[in-house]
Structure formats: C-alpha cells, structure tokens
Amino acid sequence: MFEREIATYEHPLPSREYVLQMLAEQGVPIPFERICELLDVADFELAHFSRRLGAMARDGQLLQNRRGDWLIPDKADLIRGRVEGHADGFGFLVPDDGGADLFLSTKEMDKVLHGDHAIARVVGTDRKGRPEGKIVEVTERANSSLVGRVFEEHGVWYVVAENKRISQDILIAPPAKGERKALKPADGQVVMIEIIEQPSKQKQPIGRIIEILGNYADPGMEIEIALRKHELPFEFSKEVLAEAKKLPDEVRKSDWKGREDVTALPLVTIDSETARDFDDAVYCERQGKGYRLVVAIADVSHYVEAGSALDRDAEDRGNSVYFPRRVIPMLPEKLSNGLCSLNAQVHRLCMVCDMTISAGGDIKGYRFYPAVMWSHARLTYTEVAAALYDKDAAARDKLDALLPHLENLDALFRVLVKARAKRGAIDFETIETRMVFDDNGKISRIEPYERNDAHRLIEECMLAANVCASDYLHESKHPALYRVHEGPTPERLEKLRDFLGTFGLQLGGGDEPHAKDYAALLEKLQGRPDKQLLQTVMLRSLRQAIYSPDNVGHFGLAYESYTHFTSPIRRYPDLLIHRSIKSALKGRRYELRDGGAGGDWEQIGLHCSQTERRADEATRDVDAWLKCYYMQDRIGEEFAGSISSVVPFGIFVALDDVFVEGLVHVSELGADYFHFDDKAHAMVGERSGRRFRLSDRVRIQLVRVDMEQNKIDFRLVEGGGADAAIAAPKKRGKRG
Predict the structure, then answer these.
(1) What b/e string do you get for 290-315 counting C-beta neighbours within 10 Å, with b at 16 or more?
(2) How far apart are CA 421 and CA 557, in angstroms?
C-alpha cells in the first residue's frame, strides 16, 4: 500500500487501507485531529488528507457522526442512504451502496422528510419480512421550502405538502417579535413555505409562509404548483436578463466572419402551428442517384458563452419544459424566440450538417460548418402534409417554388424509412393526445393527435444529423455527451420471454437481443387482437434513455453511436455538442467549466438526465390534475376502456374516447380474493379464477375524483360488454 502511494505522490498520504486498518484497531469513532496524530499527517498535508477522508465517505467506506468523529459504517452496523417517503406515512431508506432498502415505520418517518439523507441501523424485520431500520442521524436535509395547501383548525394553521411523499403536516409559526407582518392566506389556499425547523423525534416540522399563490382551482395553478413541487427554475436572474439585454437584436455583419454564406439555399422550417422557437431548418436536393441533405441548427453557442450567467442558468435548467399552454424556456425569450430562433425572412447564425446520402439511405459523407442562413419560409406539418400527401391544390400553389425541394425531402424520407427498417429500429405504435382549452383556460376536451408523414420526415432528417454529430466527435476522439439507450436487463428479458412463451411467441437474439429482434417480433404482431398487450409488455422491458459520456449506442434506434445535436435552444446537452464540434473543427478540445456538475462529463450527463426526468414528472402532474378537473363533473357516467396497467392493488383503465386513466381498486374487482400475477400482468381471482389482464377490454363507471391526490377511481360495470372477466382455464394449456 505504501509502495503504491510513494510511487504516486512525492509526499505520500496514508492510504485508504491504512486509514481503515487504524480505525478498526481503535474500535471507536475518532475525531479528525486524533486521526492525523495517529497517522503522522503533517500540517501541510491536512487539506489533502481531509479530501481523502471525504472521498472515502462518498464511497461509503467512512462516515461522520453528529460530533464530526469518523467511523467505519460496518463496525456500527450503520447504513447511509436517502429517505423515500410514502403517502401512507411509512417510508424506506435507500442505501447509497445499492443494498436492500430498509423499511422505516411511521414513527421513524416523523424524524425526517422525503429526500433527506440519513444514517440508520437495522433493528429487525417488519411483518412482511423486510429489514427494518431506525434513524440514527440525519446527515443532510433535502427540503428548505415546499408548496402545499394551508388549513386552519382550532386556531392552528398548518400546511399539507403537495408532494404526497411528505406525509407530515407542517405547522405554521406565528410571527416572532419584531418580525414583519406575516402573510395571511385564506383557508385552503396554495402557499409556498420556508421550513424554519426540521422534524425531529420530539416535534413536527415548522414553516413560515413566504408566498401565497392563490386558490387551488385558479387557472394555471396546477403549473404553479408543479414548478415549485419539482423545484423547476422558472425565473431568470437579474444577471441573466442583463446579459441577454446586451445581446444584439439581429445578426451583425461582424458575426459573419469565419462563416459560410448559405442564405441563397432555400432552407425552410417545418414545425407545429403553435411552435415559437425554431431550432432547425432543412433543404434537400438530388445528387446523382442519391441526395444532399442540409440540416441547419440554430447556433446558440455563439451567444451563450461557457461560464456566463446565461450558460450557468441553462445548465441548471437542463432543458425547456412544455406544459399545456405554457413553456418554461431554457433560455430567455430574446434568445429562444428571437435571436436564436430560425425565424423566416431574417438572417440567423447556424451550425450546418451537410450530408451526402445514397439511394439506399446510407450516409456516405458529411461536413459540419458554421454559417449564416435565411429561412425562406415558416411551414407547418399540416400544410406540408396537405401539399405532399393530400395533393391539395391550394396548399401546393402556396408553396410554389419551394415544392420541388420539399418533394426531394419526401423522396429522401422514403429512402431513410426503408433504411430504418433494414437497420432494425424499434417503432412502437402510440397514441399522442392534446388538450383543448376554453376561453376561461379550462380544459374542454382531450383529443388524439396524429403524427403525419411531415412529422416523420423532419424526424428522419434530425436523426441523420444527430448520427453524424456523434460520429464526428467519436472519430475526433473528443469527449461528448451521447444519448445512450441500453437493451433490457437480464431480469427484464427473462420476464418478457416467460410472458411471450404463454402466447407461443419467441424473441430472438439469445441473451443479448438486438433491436432487430424486437422489430421482427413487432412485425409478427400485426393484425393480432392482443397486439396492444404484447407491444406494451415489450416496451416496458426496455430501459430509459439517458445522457452519458460512455458511447454504448442507442438500442431502440439501432444506432451504434448517437447524440443530440438538433435542439440547442431547448436542451443543454445539444448546446454542449455544438461547443464540442466547434472545438474539434479548430483542432482543439472543449473543456467543461469547473464547479458544479459542469466540470465532469459523467456528472453533467447525470444532471441532464435528471432534469429531463424532472420535467417529465412535472408535466405528468399537470396533465393528471387537468384530467381530474375535466372528469370531476362526469361522476356516475359509464365508459369503455382497456386495462393499461396491472398493479398489486388493482387495475388501471384507459378510457377509449376521453383518453383519461383511472384505478379500479382490487376491492372493486368482485366478491373474491384477487392476487397479482406479475409474470402474467394479471389479477386472478382465488376461487373464481376470474382474470383481469393487461389490455383486456372492460366497461367501468366513474365513482370518484380526488383533486388533491390527482386520482380517478372507477368501478366495474357488470354485463357491460367487458371481455376482461374470463373464466379460469379448465384444461391444461388452454386460456379462456
């Protein structure tokens, strides 16, 4: 150990092994000063040695108690982890080292809030056989503020947190002597509070109201709550706004230096009718038997300099967040909707991916370069589809000189789709929906939103540019954030194969299936009545895509290398890719700024993956609230639907025409004991053999809408044409 240290350092520090050995021999927690004395750490080595102990703590080898003394966790049978609360009051400690979760009783959860980091000791097992823990010490508090509803009972005011994983009520403290007059909300209003005393064994958490948001049912309140509940940054700092204000309103002549002039190229943007920020423009021309595809992307990196206030804020946000009727942008509006948006008929700075693609859809060559462009038109998916696919005369006349270029794009799109199928990319069929609001800002209906071929055309162009960006950085040996998507875990794969086997189906590929194997199986499902069931189970076997510096490929898209290059206005990873490409073009290496997540590619990949999930969770919350609001006046109505999920406590049903999902609790399934069959994705009656399985058809009645919990409850309607209630198999190998 000493030999390893002396070979690495001129003045070797005590190794990790030596530190652990010494602490084990002492057998008790020891303060830092005593450790340094026992190990002969010199004064000039103190700072470095302190960092070593900190690194050992991060790796779970050491921990500090409340007094700051250092000890070995295993010696004290202590486990360090993160607290995860449950709406019913109990919770779990999720160990940092990946070990089994510790059950925390309601009594233990009284000491902590969801998200806190704590040290616990195993004290036995609960009635379900799970290891049970006792909180020894809270090492880090996760909640300094929270959003919730304020209530008054017998003169006592308290707040119920909107995050239902926080089950404790937070008492509101009366204003202290000399303190400014406290805010006075009405009973039931939504407020933001600052926690001034954290919970402990002896007392509840105490807070102070710092903002009154309004009434729970006010238009837009669901978004205000989601922003604060998920801690989404939604206000730009004065420093950021000042930097944005200094930027020009239009492209200056000095900005043209070092850029190619592609203003004569008839580039166009194709987006939805409601889009306001335009990241990408496209152009296509025939080139022999193949094609030249030009994808121009807004050059955000020219204006957002690394380390600036704009950059720090963009990194913190990670991405724009799109709610119904409101967007929380990653960049101030001057940039996102103005200077960096590829608006029509104005000069804009861009980064171009100029590709040569064969008649078979293979990318034969590409070139990246900074340029100045002029968007010749702002087109919508609807009008492009009308002109290209519906052959609408008025739409074709309107597009006029642009039509030949769009027809070239369509021809290339057809080629790329065939290449996609040949590559074996997975293409799950899903129904997208959108909410339609009335003049009062309330949801009036939910309708399916069909993606036409114009959407797919742009998608294929963006995929091609992203692949080239990934390939360029990989070949340049430049670090990058790849968009990676790994295949199924062995456990998920085994469960999927077991399930498919009951239908006489097989997934090819052995222990490491390829996307092609999934695609081939999906093809076999066409026309089957149980296609939706099988497709859903296949989809759930896959892992979530993330950002990572480790280029492990994208399983779903069947790419060996893939990244995000095409949306730097709304995704921070794309902005980093632009900076990396620019550096590589100059033969340099882009270095991430020090501090925060920004100094390490792995950490910033983790951060951007987390902000993406944070945005997804916030938008799901808002959608759920709006759907509850929409359904609250329809209690008693009957609907047809399909089972969208089977869980131990019941079945979730997705309604056919209103695109809303709700729960039929296990107690509502019938006069029987129903058991959850995880492998079969079904609930099965113990005596009757009655079976409710994923994707089965049912008829239900809406019985309850809980606006506070964002929950919709159904009950089954007997004799309503449901085909979910199927008798248990009487003969071996048969299914009812």
Answers:
(1) bbbbbbbbbbbbbbbebeebbbbbbb
(2) 10
Let me know: does 366 contact 472? Beta carbons within 8 Å.
yes
Strand partners, 571: 319
Which sign, positive or negative, has the C-alpha torsion 339, 344, 348, 353? Answer: positive
Backbone phi, psi, residue 712, to 5°: -125, 125
Count other C-beta atoms under 10 Å from residue 6's C-beta: 11
- pTM for the model: 0.84
CA–CA dist 62, 60 (Å, integer)? 6
Q: Is 286 left (phi over 0), alpha (psi -120 to 50) or beta?
A: beta
The predicted-structure confidence for 93-117, as pLDDT tens digits, reads as follows: 999 888 889 999 999 999 999 999 9
Residues 6 or more apart from 383 whose CB is under 8 A from it?
A: 395, 398, 399
Residue type, 703: V
Q: Provide the 3-class DSSP secondary structure of residue 162.
A: coil
**CA–CA separation, 708 and 69 (whole Å):** 44
664 residue type, one letter = V
**Cα–Cα distance measured from residue 333 to residue 339, given in angstroms and rounded to the nearest whole number:** 9
60-84 in b/e form (b: 16+ CB < 10 A) is bbbbbeeeeebbbbeeeebbbbbbe
Residue-wise pLDDT tens digits, 251-278: 999 999 999 999 999 999 999 998 889 9
Q: What CA–CA distance (Å, rounded) separates 496 from 680?
A: 10
Residue 348: HSE in the Cβ half-sphere, 13 Å Cα cutoff: 32
Do you know the residue count of the chain? 736
User: Checking DSSP bridges between strand 190-197 and strand 206-214, what pairing results, if any?
Assistant: antiparallel
Alpha helices in 329-402 (DSSP H): 333, 381-388, 393-399
Token pair for residue 625? 């609230």
| Residue spans of alpha helices (H) in 544-662 | 572-585, 601-631
